[in-house]
Design goal:
- By secondary structure, this protein is α/β, with parallel strands linked by helices.
- The chain is built from 16 helices and 14 strands.
- The strands form two sheets. The chain has a seven-stranded parallel β-sheet with strand order 3-2-1-4-5-6-13, with helices on both faces.
- A hairpin with a 4-residue loop joins strand 8 and strand 9.
Length: about 425
């Protein structure tokens, strides 16, 4: 059922802030109509033409597709003409379902950068069987949430198998350093999740379930630790604070474990946090960050203060930092893993651009190209996959060769 002609990749939502950066990245990495055939798509022909003009002479022959997120006929036509749709149109809970459904029905592969775990769960429940039957490979969470975490754990487990011939039954990820801003789209998605959860007790229970997006028969019972306040971490010999993206990243990692036949073990534990320093200063910083996050979430859950945050505080969808700021951004994530016998590994995953924009656009682009060009349909059939289970080492190679990311083991204890 998959289209055999047309484009390898279509960037849907190309005139969004991340979409523009993604289009520029694909243009300078692959050109137009050369090794990769691709197009830009969105609801406004005028804005798409303006984007093509802004991209310069290299983009003069870049195809443009007009399709609105609510226009199912246009979405169907777009899907019929491409192998993979890369969607940057969020919040996905508000705008994403029609495209996912049409991809699942038509056998068109799809990837996005959602971090909305409640929406992802709904899409899996509604369209998993449809995607399996059509052959559509749906790969969500292909940005900073959750490729560094998901692929970082996959890398650590591969190294553990090579060294110890057994998996790491416990892995922790810690954000050692990062520079960048949350995107307006990410903030809008976060606020939408908080808004939904504030009036829905069932959703709050679902969001507290670490296995919420695992298949129904996953069988996992291990009680997972969640860093909710300032804590001292003996593995890193430093204080930690909650990490806002842990809520989606941990769920994706557990789904990877389930989809891979419990390759990490049936009693696998995983958690994430931010390293904030040592001694009294680190402790104080940790409690300060905990208080700030708690205050933000409380404010976001109340309609009047949520309106104030949206109006005056947080960036709006379509807004973002300058090119100079993006290029000065980076992230440095550290991993600690331990086998059931107490053997340990330390790892490091880094990116050379700000997490929310520059790095995310490169990850998303390479995930889409990897899905279009590298992944054998005999090995990965239709259904909802994670980056690690659908793309694994092929994506890791692309990320290291063309996305400014590194995955490495650390021999010291830093």
């Amino acid at each position: 059922m998959m289209n055999q002609n047309g484009y390898d990749v279509v960037v849907f939502g190309a005139t969004s802030f991340v979409g523009r950066i993604l289009a520029e990245y694909l243009l300078h990495t692959f050109g137009v109509g050369e090794d990769l055939t691709w197009a830009i798509a969105g609801r406004s022909e005028q804005k798409l033409e303006a984007l093509r003009s802004e991209l310069g002479s290299m983009a003069v022959d870049l195809p443009v597709i007009v399709a609105d997120a609510s226009d199912e006929a246009a979405l169907q036509s777009m899907c019929d003409g491409t192998r993979v749709v890369i969607s940057t149109v969020g919040p996905y809970a508000l705008y994403g379902e029609p495209l996912v459904r049409i991809c699942a029905e038509s056998g068109t592969d799809y990837c996005d950068l959602t971090g909305e775990v409640q929406w992802l769960r709904q899409m899996i429940q509604k369209y998993e069987d449809t995607a399996r039957n059509s052959g559509a490979r749906i790969v969500n969470c292909c940005g900073f949430d959750s490729i560094p975490s998901d692929m970082g754990v996959w890398f650590m487990q591969e190294q553990a198998q090579a060294r110890f011939a057994k998996p790491l039954t416990r892995v922790s990820m810690r954000v050692k350093a990062a520079k960048g801003e949350l995107s307006g789209g990410t903030v809008a998605s976060l606020l939408n999740v908080v808004k939904e959860a504030s009036s829905n007790p069932e959703l709050r229970r679902e969001l507290a379930n670490p296995y919420s997006i695992c298949p129904p028969n996953h069988g996992f019972t291990a009680r997972q630790h969640t860093v909710k306040k300032a804590e001292y971490d003996p593995d890193f010999q430093a204080w930690t604070a909650p990490f806002v993206m842990a809520a989606i990243n941990t769920r994706v990692v557990h789904r990877s474990n389930a989809l891979s036949g419990k390759a990490y073990g049936s009693d696998f534990h995983y958690d994430e946090a931010v390293l904030v320093g040592r001694g009294l200063k680190g402790r104080a910083t940790g409690w300060g960050m905990t208080g700030f996050m708690g205050g933000f979430m409380l404010g976001a859950s109340i309609a009047p203060t949520r309106w104030l945050l949206e109006r005056f505080v947080v960036p709006k969808p379509g807004q973002g930092p300058s090119r100079e700021a993006r290029e000065k951004g980076f992230f440095d994530l550290r991993f600690f893993g331990e086998t059931e016998d107490g053997e340990t590994l330390r790892g490091k995953v880094t990116g050379d651009r700000d997490p929310g924009y520059g790095a995310t656009s490169k990850m998303l682009g390479q995930a889409g190209v990897c899905l279009a060009r590298d992944v054998d349909r005999e090995q990965v059939g239709g259904g909802f996959w994670t980056p690690a289970t659908a793309l694994d080492g092929q994506l890791l190679e692309r990320l290291q060769n063309a996305s400014g990311m590194t995955f490495e083991l650390l021999e010291d204890q830093a």
